[in-house]
Amino acid sequence: MSFEDSQIWTEKYRPKSFEQVKGQKDTLKRVKAFVEQKNMPHLLFAGPPGVGKTTLSLVIVRELFKDSWNENFLELNASDERGIDVIRVKVKDFARTKAIGNVPFKIIYLDECDALTKEAQQALRRTMENYTKTCRFILSCNYSSKIIDPIQSRCAIFRFKPLEEKEIEQIIDTITKKEGIIINAEAKKALFEVSEGDCRKAENILQSCFAVSKKIDENIIYSMASVARPKEVKQALELAINKDFLEAKKKLLDTMLEYGLSGLDVIKQIQKLIWEVDVDDKKKLELTKACGEAEFRMVEGSDEYIQLEALLSQFCLVNLN
Length: 321
Ligand SMILES: Nc1ncnc2c1ncn2[C@@H]1O[C@H](COP(=O)(O)OP(=O)(O)O)[C@@H](O)[C@H]1O
Ligand SMILES: [Mg+2]
Known about the structure:
321 residues, alpha/beta, Rossmann fold, Helicase, Ruva Protein, domain 3, Zinc Finger, Delta Prime, domain 3, 3 domains, five-stranded parallel beta sheet, two-stranded parallel sheet, 57% helix, binds adenosine-5'-diphosphate, binds magnesium ion
């Protein structure tokens, strides 16, 4: 197997230019303008995983520095650098030398900033100030609300969104064409459903499926993603609504065992399916509430089977009174 073959697809298919980045339209427009001016403030990228935060940072750096991007870029992860002191030392070393080329600053990408404590964020803020002349920071986080105000106010903030179905589909199409994969429309839809707009997740699941078969259908996708097919969970719910509690319970248990699902996986699926089953809207709201309560108790450590059975019983009760 050549290196090219064994490469992980999320790296192999990481966009290298603005044109290749899907979605995130407003963000792209604003960021492009900074790059054209060869000047930019510190940036804060907020959003869920796998939607292009790291990717866009790398594109910025490539566009600004061209061939010398590597020397002008430092990537750190706040959650594995063992604290702010290590980060400070690395930033200091990096910032000591001037940027190469005609851009007057270097770029530091700091991932998972919301993992830093408030005190560590204060120290980070001071570091950012000390090196503002020579460095720009791109901070990345899942939730901007976890970043202290003094940092937020020093950054231009960008909110990244989960990718939409057509965007994920375009990415899947590119990969399947290059890799010679045969995939049908249902499988593409399934891949989008299980990825929840997280492109890294979609690409990783696709690559695991590819290891098993070059022909990909929705069954392979659901089993790789260890997510039950909505169809089977829905059947269990329908049995419950038709007052067949024992069969419903059996169906749900079988599905969990077959796909190796946790109670929380199942609750998430049920919660999505409530709006598709045939009960009136007021009941749907009650069931949604019951779902929330079961999820909470499960997270708190309650037995998942007891919670799932209790939840199924609520579906049964819908038509009993
Ligand atoms: N907006 C996007 N357009 C195209 N591919 C994307 C996009 N976002 C993510 N990807 C794919 O998913 C991978 C992981 O994305 P990344 O930018 O590292 O996510 P994160 O937002 O967690 O930093 C990329 O290498 C790329 O293959
Ligand atoms: Mg990232």
